[in-house]
């Protein structure tokens, strides 16, 4: 340590040089007080004998000269002679320790021995005795107390800071351990994966090495065969060359023998006739040369062109080959067309057989449960309005529809006689618009009033959704609408009255559609989809009416229908045209299209709109029937299989519409459909409740159209 400069330092040096104690006489009373205090604490905690002071009653300096020399030795060891070092060591050994120092060391040893160092905080426990002894020094040495207190406080602050840092780093240590374990597991997994890949690559390497060895063996074998063939070819070439030379020699010999024979003949002629020898000899030589040339050329032609096909025959065969190739392509095309038609007919046959079986089953059910047809005319006697009203109600209705109508008439009378409704309670399973306990008064509304209120609910809801840009729940909006219009007290009376009327009048489209959406049987998008179709048809008909007369010819009306409904069959278009002309004579050609969209005061639409809605439902059923047929015998279906089936029955469907249909079937978001499995019947029921329509033409219709065009 560096020596502190100043008066205090000077006085301490003087005391050390004179051999007096470290504590001056003026400090003796204070030191005595602290000594007594230390004696009390040590005797109380350790039960040790009290401290004994020196004979003079002051602090002992042991050794007084050693500390100063030690400081000098620490600072300038090179300046101290070796003799003085040895003298200081001997002095230290000869001078005994002060009793106070020995008692402090004894106290420290006992404190340390009494500690349980096996605990987790053993280091903090071990530090406490040293802290207490250091506090005794600070209290006793008044001159150095500020400095020692500052040192102690700084150490305490540093220790506290280090503890805080350790406490803050403990979660990081745990997190580090967790992350280390996770990465260790990932490394092990990657090593395992790489080990499998390495084994696979090693196997592939062995396979490729075997393949290379086989290829080398095959190459050596082929090289041997090539060498053998080259030798055979050389031998054949030499043989044919020898034959060629032998043939030439044979021809030369033949020519020579022929010339000799001609020479003998000429000599005989010369003997018979006396002609010019010179002239005949010259002519003979020329004739012999020409004959030799002709013979050589003839032999060469025979040898070179003996195996050549005449050009005339080659062209004839080439033409015949081209004709046969063209005929084969035509027959292959016809075969492919017939194969496609066969597959289509086979599919139609399968579907027809399935329909036949279903119809047969329905026929058996009808035959088993059929009863004699009732005399519906008897109902006119009990229905309000008499026979005239009953005849107008039953026009064009089936027996099932007549039963529903009769039940509605009976229920109407019962509902009018009812004065109160019994509340359903306030349970969670009760719809929000029917949560009420006790009796609810019946408002006794007419059909007209109910239809007017329901239409107003739709208008308010659509306006709110267009304003906010969000789709709201119909049950909650229905209740808020009634509370806003009639007040909280009377809202339940109107709600129960409207609900019972909607449940009763299922033949009314406005009430039945609102009731189905309100109870969750069908989706709200189905209602908006039908209204959008009718709106598009109105706009198209108005666009075709350039003169704005409100009437169109049958041809114009049919073209407008095909423009709005391009996927409808000809029979469906004709049904709509016939429904639009139900009030016209057969001779009239103008159709008043505006009147087709009128409704009476009870919300009943014209037969034309009813036909559009019926065709919408039948087309949806047909579409889903094809989808079910494409799924085959599957009991459960996942999103990928359902998506594939949709693309098969409707190839022109776009991704956005397909995602909407898949979400409608699984009733979850797009990102959650990949792992879901759903029963086929449940998926089809949910699709039937929503707005599901065909986007493009059916593959069967396209095949039929192609076949008709080919014919």
Automatic annotation (TrEMBL):
UniProt xrefs under InterPro entries: TSNAXIP1_N
Protein's UniProt keywords contain Coiled coil: yes
Residue ranges annotated for the Translin-associated factor X-interacting protein 1 N-terminal domain, each copy included: 105-216
Keywords, comma-separated and alphabetical: Coiled coil
Coiled coil: 198-232, 284-334
Top-level division of the source organism's lineage: Eukaryota
Region Disordered, annotated ranges: 1-29, 691-711
Keyword Repressor among UniProt keywords: no
UniProt name for this protein: Translin-associated factor X-interacting protein 1
Organism: Apteryx mantelli
